[in-house]
From TrEMBL:
Protein name: Probable oxidoreductase
Coiled-coil stretches: none
A Pfam family of this chain: adh_short
Alphabetized GO MF terms: oxidoreductase activity
Keyword flag Oxidoreductase: yes
Membrane-spanning segments: none
InterPro entries: NAD(P)-bd_dom_sf (IPR036291), SDR_fam (IPR002347)
Length: 314
């Protein structure tokens, strides 16, 4: 297969996570799903646990995590569903999580996220969507690098969004200190960062047998829309319907994450962006599908990695 061969699979926008993982045995594999107690994170964790993996729900709300774990144990019969505290906007929480992780990690699903919030900042002054969606996952993933390398053939799955089409990384002012804050630009920038991190992790860590890919799960009604008014949501739904984005159930929304985490068709494949269970085509103007060139740009990926290291070290 050449670097330019687009990966296609028998699965579609309608496929569910359970269908994608059907016949795959994950016994002995260890998985982390961030944001695993809400929305598509629950169904991602359920499908992976259903295939026999040990799954850790990395959550900031432990009570919600415990409720979800009980539900997944009850529906899958797999008792190896664990809960651990992780607040991605709090670097000390991320550091405590990675320090406590022991042994190999086969699959890391960076799924947690927040969308289109009003302007908020961490105590460091970082814009909160970038801090949560990107910097928190960057610190988590690099903090778990040794565990991923120890697994032999580990996979990192970055849950991005078609919203990455809204903004590249604005390196001159990532944290909106000079430009006016705009909730969707901030979300879009953070989702471009998710793809770029997969591109750079795949390049840097290829010798460790680690692959990393990114995805758009589809449009799914979850708690993610908590900052979006009903009117705006209706407008977005109408726009999406006319621009080729399908609305899905959470079980369908989890399918592309589970595909990237487990499919033999993805063996050794890294640094790519998928939607509806297939590798995306380049974005065409006038649509909300496909992947923007800025999200796969290897130079931007390297620069973002450096900036992220420096930001976390400052
Ligand atoms: N739903 C869609 O239509 C859609 C479309 C494109 C992309 N996505 C992406 O899909 C992923 C999952 O979204 P979803 O729709 O399932 O949303 P969701 O139901 O709101 O789940 C997001 C999860 O992220 C967690 N989270 C938020 N901030 C966090 C923090 N600081 N530390 C740790 N966890 C945090 C939330 O925890 P709490 O429950 O404690 O808030 C929640 O568990 C996101 O990355 C999102 O950008 C979703």
């Amino acid at each position: 297969m050449t670097a330019s061969t687009r990966i296609t699979t028998p699965f579609t926008a309608e496929s569910t996570a359970a269908e994608v993982v059907d016949g795959i045995d994950l016994t002995g594999r260890r998985v982390i799903v961030t944001g695993g107690a809400s929305g598509i994170g629950i169904e991602t964790a359920r499908a992976l646990a259903g295939a026999g993996a040990e799954v850790t729900l990395a959550v900031r709300d432990l009570a919600a995590g415990e409720r979800t774990a009980e539900d997944i144990v009850a529906t899958t019969g797999n008792k190896q569903v664990l809960v651990a505290r992780l607040d991605l906007a709090d670097q000390s929480s991320v550091a405590a999580f990675t320090a406590a992780w022991d042994g190999p990690l086969h699959i890391l699903v960076n799924n947690a996220g927040m969308m289109a919030s009003p302007e908020m900042r961490t105590p460091e002054g970082w814009e909160l969507q970038f801090a949560t969606n990107h910097l928190g996952h960057f610190a988590l993933t690099t903090g778990l690098h040794r565990a991923l390398a120890a697994a032999g053939g580990a996979r990192v799955v970055a849950v991005s969004s078609s919203a990455h089409l809204r903004s590249p990384i604005v390196f001159e002012d990532i944290h909106f200190r000079e430009r006016e804050y705009e909730p969707w630009s901030a979300y879009g920038q953070s989702k471009t960062a998710n793809v770029l991190m997969a591109v750079e992790a795949a390049r840097r860590w290829a010798d460790d047998g680690i692959t990393a890919n990114a995805l758009m799960p589809g449009g799914i009604r979850t708690n993610l829309q908590r900052y979006v008014s009903d009117e705006e949501l209706e407008r977005l739904r109408a726009q999406s319907a006319g621009a080729g984005v399908s609305w899905k159930t959470p079980e369908q929304g989890a399918a592309t994450s589970v595909l990237l985490a487990t499919s033999p068709l993805l063996e050794g494949v890294g640094g790519r962006y998928f939607e509806d269970c297939n590798e995306a085509e380049p974005h065409q103007p006038g649509t909300r599908r496909g992947v923007a060139a800025w999200a796969l740009d290897p130079e931007a990926a390297t620069l973002l990695w450096q900036v992220s290291v420096e930001t976390l070290a400052a």
